[in-house]
């Protein structure tokens, strides 16, 4: 049976369509995926993301551990205890085990938020590496997580938290603050302003109801996926996996090459790929017509076939869009193979939409 988040009963009472996602019973929508997508772009939407894996690391070896297992460098967080860092966790071949956010909580304390679908792979990997540094990872399965996303996110948070919201609304993107009752990051997965709030499981239901009473709309996994696609954000398991490196997934910017003497897992393989040049690169595509590109569709290019990694309809553009991995040498003139026909597509640089505005 799939696991249930602390908000499962609230979702069921609201008439959500529940599906099994990565072993969790999650709402895919609350009646209309399109209305939920539009609510986030125009106002504010709520997402239950309690299925994400939260892990705390503490102790003298935590920093060294993270510098070893992440391609980005947590030393960048040394100057600010409230800053967050996005990074990939790699295997020895440079393939992406997971992408995650690590928060520096001060001193030798860190918090990792990683994907639900990779939980059974990441936890043993983390435990094994941590033991070498004298660190004991602490999975926080006792916590819930709610994402508040959209141009009215600040207003919703203020209404729900009152005066306690002021330290959070003052945050810059990719910074965090801890209050007596919650851990709040100015982060998200939609291309809009917003917050991700981590709090105790018993408190989650009360907080969720306050946000709904303030006017925020509950949203499911369907809208979360279409929003992140418009924002040009990768999905683990589709746009990247253990056979794909950050250089092939459009995530080269997350690799900290300096200092040169820092070893991290996968570095030798990545350095060889950077030297020789990756065989593939990630692009965005805007398609003609109405046929929807899906994961796995072939992309015809003058340098051989590429593949659609994520695709669907963009409510803001009113057009089909996709992320695709294509041969590095490919030029313009792309055709996407959909249901036995070739559909012309224009290459663009993601994001397609950011802060409600078309970017391509």
What features would you describe in this structure?
The structure is a single chain. This protein is of the alpha+beta class. It has a domain at 279-358: Elongation Factor Tu (Ef-tu), domain 3, CATH 2.40.30. It contains 9 helices and 22 strands. The protein has helices at residues 8-13, 33-42, 62-69, 119-132, 153-161, 166-169, 201-214, 221-230, 267-276, and strands at 3-4, 17-21, 24-29, 45-48, 53-57, 84-90, 96-106, 109-114, 138-139, 143-149, 176-178, 182-185, 194-200, 217-219, 280-287, 298-300, 306-314, 319-327, 334-338, 341-348, 353-354, 357-358. The chain has a 6-stranded mixed β-sheet with strand order 11-12-13-10-4-14. A hairpin with a 5-residue loop joins β16 (298-300) and β17 (306-314). α5 crosses α7. The protein is globular. It starts with a strand and ends with a strand.
Strands across the major sheet, in which order? 11-12-13-10-4-14
The CATH architecture category of the domain at 279-358 equals Beta Barrel
Rg, alpha carbons: 20 Å
Helix percentage range:
10-25%
CATH class of the domain at 279-358: Mainly Beta
- The CATH topology name of the domain at 279-358 reads Elongation Factor Tu (Ef-tu), domain 3
State the secondary-structure class: alpha+beta
Give the uncertain stretches in residue-range form: none
How many beta-strand segments? 22
What average pLDDT do the residues reach? 97
Strand content: 25-35%
What profile does the largest beta sheet have? 6 strands, mixed
Q: Kindly, what is the distance between the CA atoms of the first and last residues, rounded to a whole number of angstroms? A: 43 Å
User: What general form does the structure show?
Assistant: globular
CATH superfamily of the domain at 279-358: Aminomethyltransferase beta-barrel domains
Discrete helix count: 9
């Amino acid at each position: 049976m799939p696991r249930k988040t602390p908000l499962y009963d609230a979702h069921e009472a609201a008439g959500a369509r529940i599906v099994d996602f990565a072993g969790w019973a999650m709402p895919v929508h609350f009646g209309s995926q399109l209305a939920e997508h539009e609510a986030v772009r125009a106002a504010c939407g709520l997402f239950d993301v309690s299925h994400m894996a939260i892990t705390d690391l503490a102790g003298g070896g935590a920093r060294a551990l993270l510098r070893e297992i992440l391609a980005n460098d947590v030393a960048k967080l040394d100057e600010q205890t409230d800053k967050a860092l996005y990074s990939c966790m790699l295997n020895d071949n440079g393939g992406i085990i997971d992408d995650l956010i690590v928060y520096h909580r001060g001193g030798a304390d860190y918090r990792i938020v990683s994907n639900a679908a990779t939980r059974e792979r990441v936890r043993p990997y983390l435990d094994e590496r941590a033991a070498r540094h004298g660190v004991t990872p602490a999975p926080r399965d006792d916590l819930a997580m709610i994402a508040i996303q959209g141009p009215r996110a600040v207003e919703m948070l203020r209404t729900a938290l009152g005066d306690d919201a002021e330290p959070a609304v003052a945050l810059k993107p990719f910074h965090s603050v801890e209050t007596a009752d919650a851990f709040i990051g100015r982060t998200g997965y939609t291309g809009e302003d917003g917050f991700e709030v981590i709090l105790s499981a018993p408190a989650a239901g009360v907080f969720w109801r306050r946000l709904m009473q303030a006017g925020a709309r509950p949203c499911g996994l369907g809208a979360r996926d279409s929003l992140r696609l418009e924002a040009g954000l990768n999905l683990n398991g589709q746009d990247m996996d253990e056979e794909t490196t950050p250089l092939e997934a459009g995530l080269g910017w997350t690799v900290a090459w300096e200092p040169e003497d820092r070893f991290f897992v996968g570095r030798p393989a990545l350095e060889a790929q950077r030297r020789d040049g990756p065989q593939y690169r990630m692009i965005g595509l805007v398609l003609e017509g109405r046929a929807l590109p899906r994961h796995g569709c072939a992309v015809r290019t003058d340098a051989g076939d590429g593949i659609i990694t994520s695709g669907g309809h963009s409510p803001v553009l009113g057009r089909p869009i996709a992320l695709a991995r294509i041969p590095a040498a490919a030029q313009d003139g792309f055709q996407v193979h959909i249901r036995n026909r070739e559909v012309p597509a224009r290459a663009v640089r993601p994001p397609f939409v950011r802060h409600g505005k078309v970017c391509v």
